[in-house]
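new request in #modeling-help
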Amino acid sequence: MTATDTRPAPAAAPPPRPPGWANWLVSLGRSAWRQLTSMRTALVLLFLLAVASIPGSIIPQTNVGIEKVQDYYRAHPTLAPWIAKVDGFNVFGSPWFAAIYLLLFTSLIGCVIPRLRDHFRAIRSVPPNVPARLDRLPQHASVDDHDGDVEAIAAALRKRRWRVVVRGDTVSAEKGYLKETGNLVFHLALMAVLVAVALGSWYGWHGNRILVTGADSGFCNSLQQYDESKLGPRVDEGKLPPFCVTLDQFEATFQSSGQPKQFKATVTVEGDGPTRTANFSVNDPLRLDGASIYLLGHGYAPILRYTDRFGKTQTKEGPFLSMDGMQTGSGAISFPDANVDPKTGKRDSSLQMGFDGIYMPTAPAQAPFLRSEFPAENNPGLLLTAYRGNLGLDAGIPSSVYHLDQGQIDAGRLKQVGEGKLLKPGDTWTLDDGSSVQFVGTKKYVTLSVRHDPGQRIALIAAVCALVGLMGSLFGKRRRIFFRLASPSPTSSSRLLEAGGLPRTDYPGFAEEFASTVAAVREKT
Amino acid sequence: MAALSDALLVVAMLGYLASMICYAAVYAFGDKGVVARVAERERGRELVGAGGPPVVEFIGSPEPVAPVRGRGALAGWIAAGFLVLAAAAQIGSLIFRGVAGHRLPWGNMYEYVLAATSVAAVAWIVVMVRRPALRHLGLYVALTQVVLLGIAGLLLYVPVGPLVPALDSYWLAIHVTAVAISSGVFLIGFVPAGLFLIKSAYDKGKIAGFPFGDRLPAADVLERLSFRLHAFAFPIWTFGALIAGPIWAESAWGRYWGWDPKEVWAFISWIVYAGYLHARATPSVKKTTATWIAVLGFLTMLMNLFGVNIFFTGLHSYGGLP
């Protein structure tokens, strides 16, 4: 669509046909198709696409971050369902967005195919006849002492990579076919990008999860093991590449300002070839056969040891989500099986225990203990609040593992025990019923994304082709140059050579090229 | 080194201001000839190729330019000198910023604006050398530079520091450099685009009162300069934002395209500029309409730089706003 508006002009009016609904429909369809494939429509669709993208940057998007969508629901409870109805939280996967780009690509196909045909013909055809009046062309020159060797002119032009045809005493030459070639390559490559994106969404998959250090917290590549996952419609769940990963170590170093300096995750990979240890980091993913593992974030998982009123001890760890750059973590650890009476063996749902807290790898020296002061564990502190009662886990409603059920707390079924308390690693806090909780320490965790997108290589190749085509289309120049030898005069052996040049596309430097080409032809003689 | 960088920024801003004042003097006091004569000549040269499709040519200045004397010409030379000096100070500020941080000096929003405007300054000097006739448009270039550098220095400034690990990749050199170069050239393309719209409105008598309307170069000279700058920047933008960016995004975040706000607006800018190039190549679309699209494109670039960094949070939040 770049060069000129050379869409095929409406064909000459078809022979009159008997009126009828069928003909009316055919002509309607034809005019609709002509409308759709016109440059004006393509431009309008292009702008619609741009305008339709804007809400995708303003309204939080599910595929970018589901948490922000949930926050939006909380902040705008009446508006959010309406936005959801028009796919406002999934703009780029919505039918109306798809309608725009599919129409645009249809328009593109309708434009590119006829041009492909025309260009194919143009490449195979020879430059046209020399026009009658060369002095009417934008560039014109004449040489009055030519020796009359037409073939020498043609040779000089061919040497300058013109396509040349000699007809009698005239030479026609054309150059710059690459402009239209580039233009077509660009548009075809854009279609290939769309195909690659479609392939990626059909045959690609991903899973995200938190992985805590230690041999007993590894995971294997199956959907159940991910916190969040998505399979393309053509992916067989049973055929995901079988590998298992455990996080041996995670190192993070920081500047004195708290800005991170370097991350390094060390993992053991099984099932992807021989068992091996590998390192990976931000910007340097772990490439496995059929999937890549990306390091997206990190944090701390405090470990709590709870000894209930019957003396039974349980130890649990819970990843706390980082809330800021200083790694202030927020999370909860539940003990639903606490305070089971050893005599009856029954669980008392009013005696379940839950703790929520804020973990500060570097706690401030004095209260308030709200925010960490540094992301490394220089002065770890866990501000813990204890709750006793019904955790609300039995209702079968999936609940977040990062906080206790606020509904249960509001309904009074889960009651706070005492005041919040700041614990240092190793500290034990004895509660009112004689049970106690110990802050054992922390483990590090990483947030991982495991992904496979079979379309991405095609998309890259297509995008590079599009760029190359684009440059051909923007900087290529189609132009013609003609020479005509006047009839020999009886008095002299030299002949008058007339030259004319016609730039077929916008080409400010054509005058120079024309002059130098004419000079080259002249020198040849 | 960091202090030297900051001092050079001040020098650059003062230089652009001095240049603006001198250019203003050219417009206001210089004998009308300096500018208007040039405008006339540019117009005249276009008519040379009359007959057949309009062929416009202007490479360098083949015909001898009658030396313009007088206070106006002197002010013009001084203005150009200040502009080059300011550009040198600006680039120096960028370089010393890099030396102080031991890294490429485009790792946060302040540095990015500094880098993109430096590219714009260089692009303008190239235009100025190749087309001396348009030199006096430096007034508008210096004006945009002062505004952007002022915003950078006053609102975006952060002390020099090391890179976050997310940016610690050789793709920083490729992706951000390409994006900064294309942004800088789009910025310089925006200046003649805006002036073309002013000039064509002036020619039609819509804004007859515009004081310098008769001192701007011919409308089609401005339009063509604007097109060539955009055509130059567009492939670089395509490479930087839509090829190098996705390659880096794949290794950093696991997906080559994820509709992060920055990506959305890069896509929008690309579409709008693509629309401009198509519109300009379509004879049935008026040049003014096409140029409005280019101006819109520049507004989307500004939105992406300032709006997205300030109002939206996303994966590209390295702006490090103070």
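bot summary: Chain B touches chain A through 60 residues (CB under 8 Å).
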